[in-house]
Design goal:
It comes from Oryzomicrobium terrae. The protein is α/β, with parallel strands linked by helices. Helices cover about 40% and strands about 20% of the residues.
Length: about 220
Amino acid sequence: MRLLLVEDDLLLGDGLCAGLNHYGFQVDWVRSVAAALSALATDTYAGLVLDLGLPDGDGTAVLDAARNGKAGTGGNSAVPVLLLTARDAKEDKLRAFAAGADDYVVKPVDLDELAARLRALIRRSHGRAVPRIVAGRVAFDPEARQAYLDEAPVDLSGRELAILELLLERLGRVVSRPQLEAALYRWGEGVESNAIEVHIHHLRKKLGTDFIQTRRGLGYLVEKP
């Protein structure tokens, strides 16, 4: 899943990117309000991790833009927003929740806790009460990053897990090739022309040839059971 991280502290931002990537997230990292607004206007994210104290303004401007569709951020109006900030005053928290924040975490943060909170926010945004996703013979545990076929663990690469997770999060809906690429690759990462097709091929070999359906000219989907 692809996240937008808005954090101006270089050391913390670098650590968060590396740590969240370890938990299966693809992270685009920006350091200002202006860059965050630009990112939200051009890309769609599964979650937003937002600092409040930014060099060109307050992070609540980004939250307001996301929630109200300002500055062309329409595709991200419902994105789960976790505020990660050094501000621990009750008034700051109340203002943030009133503005539409979904969670509020005071620095310093434990990476295990941060990843768990993000997964819970994203899960609820998709209308799921439990972490495990099941589609026929296939199951996926996002917390453990483990796929199962008939309850037997299946060894998948990181890219394969990311594709499977996105398709299962959108059961019954077609996911386009550009959407899959956006979820798999961060800014600046090269994408080979047939990379998605290769990953889909490997998933079919491991999970069943009919598990992932192709819709010519549209993309891929996993049918609802």
